[in-house]
Write a structure and sequence with these properties.
285 residues, alpha/beta, Nitrilase/N-carbamoyl-D-aminoacid amidohydrolase, six-stranded mixed sheet, 8 helices, 28% strand
């Protein structure tokens, strides 16, 4: 089965949930107009990224009006979107939800919060404590939010949990500009291709565009096939709806040609990780 997916490279407005839900609504409508059956919006699409002390002001519970609106819209087209979530126990998380058939199908809370260089997420967000794939109408999906994808364990766990499509929502700034090339975008291109080839999964990467607090976001959303080939690529910096076609037949063919998932020795990996963890935490003090 084939599906057309839209990667919505939008430019959210900092701290303005009302206007951002309108941007998301417009992106969903544009994706529907070109027969997409799924649209992926970036990390923190409903709030903007450089939030700092604004986090509690833009936080949404899963029964809030903007989240319920996205749920309702997903009756016609599946939606994946990032937002600040206020959890029932009072934490604020950098979260992503997948909506389909008029409901929330899954919520992922960013497990790795960058707190170095220009990034300060650890001061304002609580880390997620689950990494799980889930079933959808497109196959089994695994969600990651930006920094999650820089930790090999996250895509590995998702793939071993059966994920056939890895989805990365991002708010990646443009860093290391040399001539016409943005080094951070090139790094993301490498990550997307390598994960797709090694894990035999489709990888979809939706990154935001625009400017915020003096920071330029790099755009360049992209997708790779389960065989590691780039099959879609958006422009740098500018807003765009990038489309890609995914196929369960192509996924099956890639996994038959190189059966890495079949041959993975998960019990060996677990045993060796337990050995390493035991040595690390059993130190002399």
């Amino acid at each position: 089965m084939k599906h057309k997916v839209g990667l919505a490279q939008i430019s959210p407005l900092l701290g303005n949930v009302e206007k951002n839900i309108a941007l998301c609504r417009d992106a969903v409508a544009r994706a529907q107009a070109i027969d997409c059956s799924w649209v992926v919006l970036p990390e923190l699409a409903l709030s903007g990224y450089m939030l700092r002390d604004l986090v509690p002001e833009v936080a949404l519970t899963l029964d809030s009006e903007p989240i319920e609106e996205l749920s309702a819209l997903s009756a016609r087209i599946a939606i994946t979107a990032g937002f600040v979530e206020e959890t029932p126990d009072g934490r604020f998380c950098n979260s992503a939800a997948h909506f389909e058939k008029g409901r929330i199908a899954h919520v992922h809370r960013k497990a790795y919060l960058p707190t170095y260089g220009m990034f300060d997420e650890g001061r304002y967000f609580a880390p997620g404590d689950r990494i799980r794939a889930f079933d959808s109408e497109f196959g089994r999906l695994g969600l990651m939010i930006c920094e999650d994808a820089w930790h090999l364990s996250v895509p590995y766990v998702l793939a071993q949990d059966g994920a056939e499509i890895l989805v990365i929502l991002s708010s990646s700034p443009a860093r290391g500009v040399r001539g016409e090339h943005i080094e951070s975008s090139q790094a993301w291109g490498f990550i997307v291709r390598v994960y797709s080839e090694l894990l035999r999964c489709y990888v979809l990467y939706a990154n935001r565009a625009g400017y915020e607090e003096g920071v330029s976001f790099s755009g360049a959303s992209r997708a790779s096939s389960a065989g590691g080939a780039t099959i879609a690529e958006g422009p740098p910096l500018d807003e765009e709806l990038v489309t890609v076609e995914i196929s369960s037949h192509e996924l099956r063919r890639a996994r038959l040609a190189t059966p890495l998932h079949r041959d993975e020795r998960l019990e060996l990996t677990m045993r060796e990780l337990e050995r390493i963890a035991d040595g690390r935490y059993r130190g002399p003090f």
